[in-house]
Write a structure and sequence with these properties.
heterodimer; A: Rossmann fold; 4-stranded antiparallel sheet; 9 helices; B: 11-stranded mixed sheet; 24% helix
């Protein structure tokens, strides 16, 4: 589903190279985890896939279902079924969460040539998803992410993922700042969407999240490349031995 | 807030590359020679068949104006205005005042139709619930061409007419109140207005009457090189209430045009006036050519106990805005409110804010100001909150937020706070923020286009103020804001 080939990326306006020929495949139905030390380029990878303007792709391509998405605007990538759960979700003051959700859902539907959701249909979907994630109704009336705790923000990301129904979801350190209960809820949100049609790329620094979201594959990233690929057991090995062995591998 | 999606759709539906109201209406106009002399003042007064005291009042203002100099303290810059190169009076040619709409030049009616301002009562009546009706006074350059629903309002005892008609029909009321809130010598532009004001609206709500419909005035500058100097006077007697709206547009011209209005509001005991403005004068082109110079003095006097005056303004137009709708809180327990959204784009310059002058005991005021700057514009909030020695327990809350879009614009906040009583409580909150690339990217990752994302963030920013506007104006205002900011994100 997601096919990243020989990706080279630097920060725009700077000479600093962050990704150095990264190659990675995530198949339909697969949950892939990327683990790596701080500064290895994990977040950059997620931003580049989603189309953040601060980066310059100097070589390589990113294919989503065979289509190179690097030339597409972020909103077009979203409509094509790509979702990024942010490590630090943004606050949008004055915009009620419900308003934001509806605007986002309908914007994507419009791009895909689908009819806008009716209000009752929209409310039904939101209520159902919110209940599943333990999100109280008053939170949906508050401005998006404003004054939310770290855990609430992450849960809101999962709520958006659930409602937008992406085929490819990237979770950027979604576990950071979560207590164990919130972690379980977030993991449930992901696991509920796990099926042969969907794929996930879970970026994390710690093994902890992978206790709840069992990955099919684990990739180790260091200095802008994938340096090792294995099964779920690789995460446990990293937990035991740390990243030391991989720091100099690249 | 379902209006957000509506705004987005409307923005998309409209060709925003041009100012929507920039058309010119071709009507034969009657104008005296350009320039300002005593003869001009006499001409205007004679043209309106005014009583002698009104002419004397104007001449006094004119003599004082000649001794005054233009204020320079505002954070705006513009080439010197040649006051002798302006027409001070321009009226569509007709034989006497039109008695009914049928006597009004069809070209003018057509202009208002294009602007979406309903002038035919029977058309408004069809399909509109009585409580949703709006009476309109339509001012075209220097004259009021028509005022709707006058007869129906008269049944409730409400007087709503042009100030010219009021001088004929109710001279004693005009004489009693005019200049009592904004004195003749208040400031350079107000004094100029006092000498040469041409038309405007007059509203009188008698004791205990709740005005049965919204009142509104629609100002249109059409003629080239012509200044518009309107004067509005609203009096709310004991226990009465009125909600008044004003809208303004002008054609797209390369020359700058001057608009110097004076608005005076008076509330007696327990009366309330809610005054809303959607100002959309031509702002000039992207390089700052053309546009309206908007120098306006608006002030309300809460003369009676527990009276209330509330200003709500949405400012998106004008090359230069110099405007400080204020409240004098004279009556004990009176309340003043100021809700403002000032949007600037291109080369626009805005210096706007309010004054809350607490004179009476237990007076309260609230200021919510939202400035949005984009392009290469400069947007300044300037406000004064003061408490007189006798204003015990005066309270003010001010919240002043600025939002920057892009990196070539400026936002400035200049609050003045003076308290002469130890019992006053004044609170001031101010923030300046930028629509960050991160916020935009976040919204776009969820599927919103850059344009829709900006509209959504801006709408969130101005929400508190939009909520103060009457419903139909709120939708209009939201639309306007989005259009004004069109092209501000790259």
């Amino acid at each position: 589903m997601l096919d990243i080939r020989n990706l080279h990326v630097k920060i725009a306006d700077e000479d600093k190279q962050i990704l150095n020929g990264l190659t990675l495949k995530v198949h339909r139905g697969e949950v892939a985890a990327i683990m790596g030390p701080n500064g290895s380029g994990k977040s950059t990878l997620s931003y580049v896939i989603a189309g953040k303007p601060d980066y310059e792709v100097t070589d390589g391509e990113v294919l989503l279902d065979g289509v190179n998405i690097l030339e597409m605007a972020p909103d077009a990538r979203a409509a094509a079924g790509l979702f990024l759960a942010f490590q630090y979700p943004m606050e949008i003051p004055g915009v009620a969460t419900m308003t934001f959700l509806k605007a986002a859902m309908n914007a994507q539907r419009k791009q895909r040539g689908q009819a806008e959701l009716t209000t009752p249909d929209f409310i039904k979907r939101v209520n159902k998803a919110a209940e599943l994630l333990g999100i109280p109704k008053d939170m949906l009336r508050r401005p998006l992410n404003v004054g939310f705790s770290g855990g609430e923000k992450k849960r809101m990301e999962i709520l958006q993922m659930t409602l937008l129904e992406p085929k490819m979801s990237i979770m950027d350190e979604t576990d950071s700042g979560l207590d164990i209960d919130a972690l379980k809820i977030v993991a449930e949100g992901v696991n509920a969407r796990r099926d042969p049609a969907h794929a996930f790329l879970v970026i994390t620094h710690y093994q902890r999240l992978l206790d709840y979201i069992k990955p099919d594959t684990v990739h180790v990233m260091s200095r802008g490349q994938i340096v090792k690929t294995g099964g779920a057991e690789l995460a446990l090995e990293l937990e035991a031995n740390g990243y030391r062995d991989y720091q100099s591998a690249a | 807030m379902p209006a957000v999606q509506e705004t987005i759709d409307q923005v998309k539906a409209i060709d925003v590359s041009e100012y929507k109201y920039g058309f010119i209406t071709d009507v034969e106009m009657e104008k005296p020679a350009k320039g300002l002399t005593e003869a001009t003042v006499r001409y205007i007064s004679a043209r309106k068949n005014e009583p002698a005291w009104m002419l004397d009042w104007r001449l006094d203002a004119f003599r004082r104006w000649k001794t005054m100099t233009e204020p320079t303290w505002a954070r705006v810059s513009y080439p010197e205005i040649d006051f002798q190169d302006i027409y001070y009076y321009a009226a569509p040619k007709m034989n006497g005042a039109p008695k009914s709409l049928d006597e009004v030049d069809p070209a003018i009616l057509d202009a208002y139709k294009k602007l979406g301002i309903p002038l035919r009562e029977q058309e408004i009546l069809a399909g509109v619930e009585p409580q949703n009706r709006v009476a309109v006074d339509a001012v075209f350059d220097s004259v009021s061409v028509v005022t709707t629903f006058r007869a129906e309002l008269a049944k409730a005892g409400v007087i709503f007419c042009s100030i010219s008609d009021a001088l004929q029909e109710h001279p004693e009321l005009v004489r009693k109140y005019i200049g009592t809130v904004v004195p003749v010598t208040d400031n350079y532009y107000a004094t100029l207005n006092s000498a040469v004001f041409t038309d405007g609206s007059f509203v009188f709500i008698p004791k205990g009457v709740r005005c049965p419909m919204e009142l509104s005035t629609y100002f249109r500058i059409n003629e080239k090189n012509t200044g518009q100097f309107e004067r509005t006077l609203i009096i709310a007697e004991e226990g009465s209430y009125v909600s008044y709206l004003e809208g303004c547009t002008a054609p797209q011209r390369d020359e700058n045009q001057l608009h110097a209005a004076v608005v005076e509001l008076i509330t007696m005991d327990n009366a309330e006036i809610k005054y809303s403005t959607v100002q959309n004068w031509y702002p000039g082109d992207a390089n700052g050519k053309g546009g309206i110079y908007n120098f306006v003095t608006k002030r309300g006097d809460c003369r009676g106990k527990n009276s209330k005056i509330s200003w709500t303004q949405v400012e998106t137009g004008s090359a230069i805005t110099w405007k400080y709708p204020s409240c004098i809180l004279r009556g004990d327990g009176s309340r003043g409110e100021f809700y403002s959204i000032a949007v600037s784009n291109g080369m626009q310059q805005v210096d706007s804010g309010t004054k809350m002058i607490h004179l009476g005991k237990n007076t309260t005021s609230r200021i919510i100001s939202k400035g949005i700057s984009a392009g290469r514009s400069q947007n300044t909030y300037r406000g004064l909150v003061s408490a007189h020695r006798k204003a015990t327990n005066a309270r003010n809350f001010t919240n002043c937020d600025s939002l920057l879009i892009g990196n070539q614009c400026g936002a400035h906040t200049v609050p003045y706070i003076e308290s002469k009583t130890s019992t006053a409580t004044f609170e001031h909150e101010a923030t300046t923020s930028k629509i960050s690339e991160d916020q935009l990217f976040y919204c776009m990752q969820r599927g919103l286009s850059a344009e829709d994302a900006t509209a959504l963030i801006v709408n969130g920013f101005v929400k508190d103020v939009l909520q103060q506007l009457p419903m139909e104006f709120a939708v209009e205002a939201q639309k306007l804001i989005s259009i004004s900011l069109e092209g501000s994100v790259g």
